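Re: export button greyed out
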Amino acid sequence: MTHILETRQLNKRFGGLHVTGNVDFALDAGEMHCLIGPNGAGKSTFFRLILGEHLPDSGQILFQDQDITRAKPFQRIRQGISVKFQVPGIFKELSVRQNLVIALQHHVDPRLLAEEIDRLLEFLNLSHAQAQLAGNLSHGQKQWLEIGMAIGLKPRLLLLDEPTAGMTPDETHATGEMLKQLNAEGMTLLAVEHDMAFVRQIAQRVTVLHLGKVFAQGSIDQITADPRVAKIYLGEVDA
Amino acid sequence: MDNASPLRRTLALIQGPQTLGRGRRFWAGFAVVLALACAYPMFADSYDVGNNVYFFNWLFMALGLSLIWGYGGSLSFGQTAFFGVAAYCYGVLTINLGDAYGLTLFSLVLAVACSALFAAVLGYFMFYGRINGVFLGIVSLSVTLVLERFMAQTAGPEWAIGAARLNGFNGMGGMPSLTIPWPGGPIVLYPDLPLYYLTLALLVVIYLGLRILVNSRFGNVLVAIRENPLRAEMLGYDIRRYQLMAFVIGSALAGLSGVLYTSWGNYITPASMGMTAAALPIVWVAVGGRGDLTTTLVGTLLVLIVFQMLTIHGSQYALVVMGALLVVTVLVAPRGIVMALVEGAMRLTRRKEAR
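Workaround output, generated via the alternate export path:
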């Protein structure tokens, strides 16, 4: 299988702190992959490096075999990466529909835009709320709206930073099913997630980051069975 | 709408989610106001009409600031820098070129282009240097204050460009007014009826043009950047380029104000780029409601008229009132007083309709 995303010896330091150390990581096209690890493991920094919010001190990032290590964030997005942030990154003072217009107008033919947005609103279960200000949505709806904006770009690779943070169990489950459907349609997903039940629901493969390094990698069963992982991370979590 | 021609699709953007006012009722009101503005000279002394063009002159700068700050979320405290650059450019050009052959109109275009170019250079360093928030205000204010200081020390005879003496603190005068070449003899736009109608026409065209701009895809991205710049960038938009473009357009409008003001009064002084001058546009736009072009327009006009009336009774006192007005706005109606009134009225009608 071909790699859609690959990092080679990726290093990032903040002052004396080594946040990621020589991270070698490869993501297969079409897989659903979860990134876990205790607080401070470097997960968020790793995401920011992929997105270009931070530039690495050394190492290389390849996306679809192209070197994007120095590309600007918006250029990476245009190449087919999209992201959903942990805290819902939506345009609060604008209507739900307008939020999606802004996400889609860039690459959708203006004559098809309205139709495409209707379809997306239905998929997100937000048709009834399209005229509301996005800031007035419930937390779960805000998360969905942002997922909608992120997938509206039709990305090859979707990064999700704790997509279910703050959601009710029902919402979490529904989100998992939504992501599975997207994956079935061919989208590659990489999620940072703490909720192990959710990881079990969606992940085909799991990578454990610890102290800025890849600590373990495998299926969820292999990871939960690994005593070293349990020691650093899963000890206090039922999984 | 789906199969409409590009022109019709563009014109349809004249109303949309980023502007208040749509539908028959709004445009009927707009037509009435425009008709009243056109009819006003028939009921007033032409001397007063010419004087009152003064109010229109500032509206372009206010609309430009609404675009940069209200829509784009970047508070520029130094729009007077572009006002001044264009004003002095117009003075220097017209004093040297004269007013024949439509050269004043050529000077107008060139002067506005100079202010736009200056904004492009300054804006490039600010936006691509990732200066934002309060620091953008500080840098832009510093620029206008430096220009004021610089122009204030140009009193000596060595400070002349061709025939144009810069004249330091006393200001530069004697430049010709805008002059339109005409077969029966050129039309000189003194503060009188023709200037009134020309400025009014410019104002209508730019107001409507900006409405189209802010409801276009460009405007969508601009408000997205105001709401959440990181999210906008992570939707694939080069946000700095959009911020820069809005800054250049808004600053060119400040330049247009500068040229119109200089042509109207045949005079420009460094004080027009000073602290007080720089602060006033912020007050106009904030009091009206910076987030919308129409509330900015109405608010600016009202504040200018009140300011003028107060100034007649003593200028210090008028400035204190302006400061108080800004504080009250921030505390009571942070989105602008005219905006708050409009929103209140809309809520009332909705409640009535619901009943």
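The first strand of chain A starts at residue 3 and ends at 14. The button fix ships in the next patch.
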